[in-house]
Amino acid sequence: MLKSMKVFGAALLLIAPTAGYAADLYEPPIIEAPEPLPPVIQPDPAPSFGGWYIRGDIDYHWSKLRGTEYITYGDAPGGLRGGTASFDTTDLKGAMSLGAGIGYQINKYLRADLTADYWFKSDFTGSTSGTCGGSPCVSTDTSAYSAWLLMANAYVDLGTYYGFTPYVGAGIGGAYIMWDDLTNSISGGSTTVHEGSSNWRFAYSLMAGTSYCLTENLNLDMGYRFTRVAGGRMFEYASGVAPGFDDGFNVHEARAGLRYQFGGNSNCAQPQVVSYDPPPFEPPVYK
């Protein structure tokens, strides 16, 4: 028995240093928690298009007459005989206008609207020359015109860059031109008043500009519009002269306005920031 215990003790003395040495050699690997992935910026999934909008605009416009003519009968004032004549000079002052409309965003690049604009009065000054009682004379003519412009418009949006969306467009419709009475004053002579005429005319427009995203629903719109208005009756008969006709207008407009889109404008949608959160890190357990 004593001998067996001695043998067992000797075995323990031999095993213990070996086990300690082995424990000193083995070190479990250090596993670090994974780094979180950086945020990923993605556009809104499946952006929706198609939505109604309303708009309001203000502008300043400059009108230029493309020509004038009026009918004369017999020995009209100024020495004009029967036939037609025209103003020697014409000038139209600039004026303000206000507009409103309703439209629909068809897709990312195409929209259309119906607009109504009121052009405030543009003052007209003209002159004619002739003979009065055998002597040369000159007349000064004054009037003004205002108008309603009703248009159906289509636009192509050319993409959005840092909130700015340039566009081009065209419109077709009609203008209701309202001329004030024309006052014809001959220097050193008589004054004649011709009743002004009002009538509908064909009109078309070409536009270019850019809109800026103020919010996802609200855009600031700035641009230029050129409008061509067909000719029509300008003033009525008085004292052997008229009716008178204008050959139409070329109108240049600098415009600014706001466009509110119901349901939001996909061109103005902010990108989504999507981040990946890894599952909680649990260190390995060694047994």
Automatic annotation (TrEMBL):
The keyword Signal applies. Residues 1-22 form the signal peptide. Pfam families: OMP_b-brl. Keywords: Signal. Coiled coil: none annotated. It comes from the Bacteria. Residues 48-262 form the Outer membrane protein beta-barrel domain. This is Opacity protein. It comes from Nitratireductor aquibiodomus.
